[in-house]
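Page 42, continued from yesterday. The earlier attempt failed because a stray header line got pasted into the input along with the sequence. Redoing it now with the clean sequence only.
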Amino acid sequence: MHAGDERLLSAFLRYLQGERQLSPHTLKNYRRDLERLDEQLQLLGLAGWRELDERRLRRAVAQLHGNGLSGRSLARLLSAVRSFYRFLSREGEVTQNPALAVQAPKASRRLPQTLDVDQLDSLLDQHSDDPLVIRDLAMMELLYSSGLRVSELASLDLTDPDLRDGSVRVTGKGNKVREVPIGRKAVEALMRWIRERNAIALLDESALFVGKKGRRLGVRSIEQRLKLQGEQAGVNGRVYPHRLRHSFASHMLESSADLRAVQELLGHADIATTQIYTHLDFQHLMEVYEQSHPRAKRKKEP
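This time it went through. Structure tokens are written below.
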């Protein structure tokens, strides 16, 4: 990178840190994306940021995509470029933003795997006297029973579940609060965990789920514990919180087909987000088709 371009990039990163107060991790991503683009532009013979136009940017994006950069990564890179050029325009360094009309290649949306009923039984019907395993089972039951996000699970306080009523108060994205039901198995698992929790949690700790040191369990720790439980139960593929949430949504939709109700349970602001959970495997579709279509029903055995 030329010295002048490095000066502009450093000034931009200082602005992000000082005025927008972005985290070091986010700043690192901005720098990496812009340096990656700068390398590609140099390969295309571009002398610096001030010379970049829409045509050259499209060409650079196409080259990066051809080199294996995903649509999702390119979308993030272009977002960084737009922000960078807004800053440069504000500072009087450029007069246009070449990234405004450039779109990243559409990223394919991968669906999380579901767990079938047999796998869920293997995972959830474990018996243990270990308090940490009892806690893990309660977390997994609640994730599958109520379709929570892992961040929502981690933020639950002891006062959020109403076990007599069979419901839990959840704070989701945008601090939106919703109340969702808890199934019987999850209520039983939570009651068992709460008896153990009271001997582990520190007196001033409000969290529902705590670690062995008595403090609130974080998202990363929850993910690690679920992975461990999945391995010990012999579940096919890795067990992670969103896989349980996806299983909840898929199983609910298979049984009820009530997309709007599942949207409310999941806490989605847009029903289009819920629609990704309507994916059913081909075998299930074939079964429904053969049972329902007048010209597809199999003949009864004589």
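Notes: Residues 279-285 have pLDDT under 50 and may be disordered.
Reminder to self: strip header lines before submitting.
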